[in-house]
Amino acid sequence: HLGMHKWAYTPLYRGFDDYFGYYLGGQNYDSHKKDNGLDFRSDYYDKDGKFVDELRWDLDGRYSAELYSDHTVDLVNKLKSEENPFFIYLAYQSVHAPHMVPQRYIDQYSSHITDKKEKVFAAMVSSMDEGIGNITKALENAGLADNTIIVFSSDNGGNVNCCGKVSSSNYPYRGGKRALYEGGVRSPSFIWARNRLSPSKSNAMSHVTDWLPTFWSLGSLQGRLKPNKPIKTKPLDGVDQWLAISENLPSNRTEFVINIDPKPIRCGHQVPHAGLRWKEWKLIIGQGCPPSGWYPAPGLTDLENPCGPHDSYIELYNIIEDPSETRNVSDKFPDIVKMLTEKIQAYNATAVPLGNKPHDPASNPKNFNFTWMPWLDMFDEVPDETYTLTNELWLSGNELSEEDISSSRDACLTSDQVIDLIEF
């Protein structure tokens, strides 16, 4: 999701030495096609330092999770003789739609899961789990396990049934993927580091941007960087969280922006919305959903699970006392609402203007032998200027209109009913 309209936005031009995978999203796991074009490649530098983009037509019919696992095992075996530390970022396609997996994984669940979609989903997790096991075994065999840190994380909470997909449960947290509520924001993670971490659990406030400075700090501890002459980076949004993780100390972070988005999305918010966490408080302005309800696992039905309009334009929750976000206390703490709103406005004032562009027909894979390519580097024509966000601050506390509420209901339709409510 970082862009591919020009080569400059692709992984090797962002600092990686090797890339194996696809540039877009939501493609077929076996054919590796998105719509009418192939999007699967090996990007690397040859022995002369020349960039190579190798389209992988030869991998048609090979399941992506197995391909990624095998490629990572090969990388580990290649890097075991390297002196410098290495970083591998493995983003499995699993378990994103479209949901598909080889039959041998489905057969593992033939006796105790009856729902076909849930059975496929579980099998997809097993395929990924098997691959991670193969990678950790390769690290052991290469003698690298004792000096390797493994981080496993997801990009958001589980998808709950607002778009007709396989339904997850983030219970007792509220909402799920696309929502500003804890069920959408929290992501289960674990960190494995032999002889460096004892078994423990941490609820320290952290954000995805904290991983880079944390890894950077750990790289420094290996003696590769001189403490009195550190290699400097550009200013980073994240903070080093290693002591919070390894010694269960308080987090170096006290706040983070959850989202500021003035444009609606399908199966999500239909009016501008923003969210901020500061210490124990979370403020939501606009729509924090959908999905907005609580979705218990089978057999648990003690909370309602509405997928409809949220209860207020401004929502304030004490996440420490009320992690399930059942009590909106915005009317009881107006000073907190005012302070956090001002924080959001300050972040919004420094935000990079949205660069969303309309669909460009020139990107059609049929123009490039039915492959997805960085098309703007292939043509002289340049599309219209980027969409520019208005300078007007929309965070004014206006009440939701009836049209907004109607749109919110529409956003909860199943996949068979979903219509394009907005132009992308």
Strand coverage percent: 5-15%
Structural class: alpha+beta
Strand order of the largest sheet: 8-9-10-11
Number of strands: 11
Shape: globular
In angstroms, what separates the terminal alpha carbons? Answer: 15 Å
Question: How do the SSEs run, as a string of H and E?
Answer: EEEEEHHHEHEHHEEEEHH
In short:
The protein is 22% helix and 11% strand.
Characterization of the model:
By secondary structure, the chain is an alpha+beta fold. It is built from eight helices and eleven strands. A four-stranded antiparallel sheet has the order 8-9-10-11, with helices on one face. The protein has a three-stranded antiparallel sheet with strand order 1-4-5, with no helix packed on it. Strands 2-3 form a two-stranded antiparallel sheet. A hairpin with a 5-residue loop joins strand 4 (41-45) and strand 5. Helix 1 runs parallel beside helix 3. It is globular. The two termini are 15 Å apart. Mean pLDDT is 82; it is low at 305-309 and 380-424.
List the helices and strands and how they pair.
Layout (H helix, E strand, L loop, with lengths): L17 E4 L11 E2 L2 E2 L2 E5 L5 E5 L8 H16 L23 H4 L9 H26 L8 E3 L29 H4 L4 E3 L18 H14 L17 H5 L8 E7 L11 E6 L2 E5 L28 E5 L15 H16 L52 H9 L14
Antiparallel strand pairs: 1-4, 2-3, 4-5, 6-7, 8-9, 9-10, 10-11
